[in-house]
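Q: My labmate handed me this sequence with no annotations at all. I'd like to see what the chain might look like in three dimensions before we decide whether it's worth expressing. Could you predict it?
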Amino acid sequence: MKTVQAWLEAHPRTGTALLALYYLAIITGLVVMYGRGDFSTPPFVYQEF
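A: Here is what I predict for the chain of 49 residues:
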């Protein structure tokens, strides 16, 4: 683990690029999951109280 940390400290741009790719993967996953445009809640959430 220390070798990876040392390598990332020696190459800061690569660490930044990896972090950007990580966030882009999260955003892409959210777009894939919710990209259909169906943002409605399931019917069991709003039960008539």
